[in-house]
Amino acid sequence: MIAANLVVFLQGVSAASAAAVGLVFLRFWQESRDRLFALFGAAFWVLAVSWTLLALYSPTEEARSYIYALRLVAFILIIAAMVDKNRSRR
Predict the structure, then answer these.
(1) Tens digit of each residue's pLDDT (9 = 90 or more) over 63-79
(2) What is the 3-state secondary structure of the chain?
(3) Which residues of 38-75 are buried (b: 16+ CB within 10 A; e: fewer)?
């Protein structure tokens, strides 16, 4: 019981941290209008949603396909941001 509560707490901390980092990236995007920051901000918000859903619905079962699908979307956004930034330099 204590371990499950600790897992939920840590997932909440991860979700709040990812949301805060997403806000920082969106603020950088507002100042610079660089798509890299917008995509990174969106990716961190998607990660925050995935950790929130995991904490709310099944804190000890990470093998849910919709959670991994959200994480996949977040990592694809990060990869797309890096590819887009490197292509725009040329």
Answers:
(1) 677 788 999 999 999 99
(2) CHHHHHHHHHHHHHHHHHHHHHHHHHHHHHHHCCHHHHHHHHHHHHHHHHHHHHHHHCCCCCCCHHHHHHHHHHHHHHHHHHHHHHHHCC
(3) bbbbbbbbbbbbbbbbbbeeebeeeeeeebeebbebbe
Judge contact between 21 and 44, C-beta under 8 A: yes
Token readout for 29 is: 């995007």
Q: Look up residue 27 and give its two tokens.
A: 């603020």
7: burial class by Cβ within 10 Å (0-12, 13-18, 19+)? Answer: middle
Chain centroid offset of residue 7 CA: 18
Q: What is the pLDDT of residues 18-64, one digit of tens each?
A: 999 999 999 999 999 999 999 999 999 999 999 898 888 875 566 67
Which amino acid, residue 63? A
